[in-house]
What does this fold into?
Amino acid sequence: MYNYNNKPILVFYETTKACDLACKHCRASAIEARLPDEMTVDQSVNFVKSIRNFGKPYPILILTGGDMLKKEGLEEILRTAYEYKIPVSASPAATARLNDESFELLKKYNVLSISLSLDGLRETHNWLRGYDWVFDKTMEAINTARNHKMPVQINTVVLKKNIMELPDILKLLITNNIRVWEVFFLIKTGRSIDFEDLTPLEYEDVNHWLYYITSYNMTVRTVESPIFRRIADEKETYHGTSLYRELIRKTHELLGLPDGKPHVHMEKTRDGKGIIFVSHNGDVYPSGFLPVVLGNVKRESIVHIYQNNDILRRLRNPENLEGLCGSCGYSDVCGGSRARAYATFNDIFAEDPACINTYNFIK
It folds into this structure.
């Protein structure tokens, strides 16, 4: 069994805040040029080398941003991870920089996979990402990745605006033989568009639908919605509201009935437990959506921070959770979104206001 107190599964590294897109919900509040406090190439390389001190199997290093393709010294960072046998995945932005040459660079250093964002059909995706060419560029990048035999994961943020396009996105994934879907739920951070967030009832319906569509041989992971694991663990018949029923109806219309049964491989991770985030300037957070600074890798080892920081130790123990999350029987399997608790109550241990149990209690 993986011991989350000793090391994470994933280390996210926000290589730069520089990005040529202008996404309305951007966690990083990305800008066109890099910031002056961005880690130097040498500092980045030293940080990557330090990951090896977690011991084998090493955590996977996720290079993100901004746009990681705009990171100065990217090839040196990739080369270091390759030489130190640290597994790497990449999360580039769908811009002109994502081309055959950049795919060849990623393949050269054995990058495992890339993740691309796709948040709806053309109009919706372009609206969210700030330009009218991004959808086409994203679909082009999917084709280019296929030509380079690079596995692709699709990331999607769920909004009121795109809920009914989720079955369309699912069809696009299946049509393009993409079987890993990471679904993000809004947190009030960066340029997050709060008015597009869902109600607890909508959270419940969408997460139940996500569980259902795993029966189409789709691996689904959620970000800042660990209630997905509670739903998968319950395995109860769900009828939901009209939203859930309409999502199911549209899915059947587009794809027919599934061949299999829902199946979820559940890692009991959450902010600071199994994942850790290193920002462009070296500051360490429990996750990219929970802006509580734990230390800085320019001054101390990522291993020491992850293993010894008191906030992280407390976050990883479900007995420290408060409110309904603390008294819930799924406090370990789920534990609620710590980032949403912090954004709502300024308390990382508070209950998750998006959970239907919280909604029913208040009601």
Notes: The chain has 14 helices and ten strands.
